[in-house]
Structure formats: structure tokens, C-alpha cells
Amino acid sequence: MEEQYNPYRTPESEVRDIDVNDDVEPELATRWSRLFAAILDTMLQLLIIMPIMYYLGVFDAAAQGEELPLLTTIGLTILGIVIYLLLHGHLLKKNGQTIGKKMMKIRILRSDNRLSTLFHLITLRTLPVTLLSVIPYGIGTILSIAEVLTIFRADRRCVHDMIADTKVVKVK
Q1: CB contact at 8 A, 98 and 88
Q2: CB 92 within 8 A of CB 118
Q3: Per residue, what are the HEC states of the chain?
Q4: Is 113 exposed, middle or buried (0-12, 13-18, 19+ CB in 10 A)?
Q5: TM spans, by residue (predicted)?
Q6: Is 149 in contact with 103 (CB distance < 8 Å)?
Q7: Domain residues of the chain, as ranges?
């Protein structure tokens, strides 16, 4: 039997979520928005870690020209990573954003426009440059500056983006 047209039936429509894998290529974040996001994230991190460093006598040692023992440096690095995860872990996992990136309306995507996992972001994007930055005798500082300067490439990707196969884009 043939179905009759019913003008009172529930309307039909195709409903789908917006996917980051849509055909439209997201616009790359500006260098300035990335810089300001990094500054905001750093300021938040410093607000937490500086009192701890003061309590541990890090500033007194620096004022006297002493170099920190290796274990103290390693401990502070691990503490910094833990604080980073506490501050940004949820947003990174959910949206590919840190607090600074959320404020600047930008986020991290894989080069194929998928969201990264938190594990991927930490192990390939954050950890390598963090470990490079703590190399003593100013070497870590020079490497960190060189790493950041790679943002002036045409694709606006830093070394940590290339290692992790990520890019930073504007949120629409």
C-alpha cells in the first residue's frame, strides 16, 4: 500500500555536528595572537611557581651567583610540567587550547585539521622544547630563542609544531 502525504507529520531534516575536518581550511593564527597567548600562559604559570621558587631559595642562590643543583632543576622542571597540566590539561584535551589560546581565540590542530590527543600534545609538542630549555650554560636559552624564531616561516609553525605535526589556527 502506498503511503499518503500527511501535511501534519513531523518535518525531516539532516542534523550533524560541525566537524573540524570540514572542507574549509582553518585560517592560521597570527604571530601576535600566538605571542600574546604564550605570554598569558607564562604569566599564569609564573604566578604559581614563583612563590614556590622563592620558598626553595632559588632567587637567593641566583643573587649570589650560584648555579642550581641538577636535581633542583629537574624537580622544578617536573613541577612546571605538572602546573602546566593542571592549568591547561582539560582545555588542551577538550579544544586544543591553553587558557591564553582560549582568550586569544586560537587553538592547536593537527596538520590534517583534527584535534590532537592530550598525550600527543604533551609528549611531542611540549616536552621536547621544555627539556631543551633546561640545558645548562645558556645553551637551553639559545635553543629556546631559536625555536621560537621559526614562527617567522611562511607556514607560521615553530619547531614544536613541526615535531608534533600541529598548527595553530583561529577559532571561528
Answers
A1: yes
A2: yes
A3: CCCCCCCCCCCCCCCCCCCCCCCCCCCECCHHHHHHHHHHHHHHHHHHHHHHHHHCCHHHHHHCCCCCCHHHHHHHHHHHHHHHHHHHHHHHHHHCCCHHHHHCCEEEEECCCCCCCHHHHHHHHHHHHHHHHCCCCCHHHHHHHHHHHHHHCCCCCCHHHHHHCEEEEECC
A4: middle
A5: 35-56, 68-87, 134-152
A6: no
A7: 31-170
pLDDT tens for residues 97-149? Answer: 999 999 999 999 999 999 999 999 999 999 999 888 888 888 988 998 998 89
Residue with cell 539532516: 14
Can you give the C-alpha Rg of the chain in angstroms? 22
Mean pLDDT score of the chain: 90
